[in-house]
């Protein structure tokens, strides 16, 4: 099992830096990993990004062993 670097930093009372990406851009997610961010939040709540595209973004983050958080839109079952 992989160690969650962000949680480990927070447990040591260290600063964990993250970035929020709100458009489809695996390259930007990869850049965040290369720049040293500890985590990336993929915010697609208000975007027309599908799950296949998000999978590419997650793979880009995992290539740099970065934690990924995802915020997605609610489907019709949620809103009723």
Describe the structure using short key phrases.
80 residues; alpha/beta; 4 helices; globular; disordered C terminus
Structural class: alpha/beta
Q: What's the pLDDT, averaged over the residues? A: 83
Number of domains in the coordinates?
Answer: 1
Tally of contiguous helical segments: 4
| Unreliable residue stretches | 76-80
Could you spell the SSE succession in H and E letters? HEHEHEH
Number of strands: 3
Distance between the termini: 38 Å
Multimerization status: single chain
Fold and architecture overview:
- The protein has helices at 5-11, 26-35, 51-62, 76-79, and strands at residues 18-21, 39-43, 67-71.
- The chain is an alpha/beta fold and 80 residues long.
- The chain has one domain (5-79).
- The protein has a 3-stranded parallel sheet, with helices on one face.
- The longest helix is centred in the C-terminal third of the chain and has 12 residues, at 51-62.
- Mean pLDDT is 83; it is low at 76-80.
Sequence-ordered SSE layout with sheet pairings:
Blueprint: H1 5-11, E1 18-21, H2 26-35, E2 39-43, H3 51-62, E3 67-71, H4 76-79
Parallel strand pairs: 1-2, 2-3
Helix pairs in contact: 2-3
Summarize this entry quickly.
Helix content is 41%, strand content 18%. It is built from four helices and three strands, in the order H-E-H-E-H-E-H.
């Amino acid at each position: 099992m992989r160690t969650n670097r962000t949680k480990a930093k927070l447990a040591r009372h260290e600063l964990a830096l993250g970035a929020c990406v709100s458009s489809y851009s695996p390259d930007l997610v990869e850049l965040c990993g290369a720049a040293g961010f500890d985590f990336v939040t993929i915010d697609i709540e208000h975007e027309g990004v599908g799950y296949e595209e998000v999978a590419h973004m997650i793979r880009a983050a995992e290539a740099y062993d970065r934690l990924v958080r995802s915020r997605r839109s609610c489907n019709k079952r949620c809103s009723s």
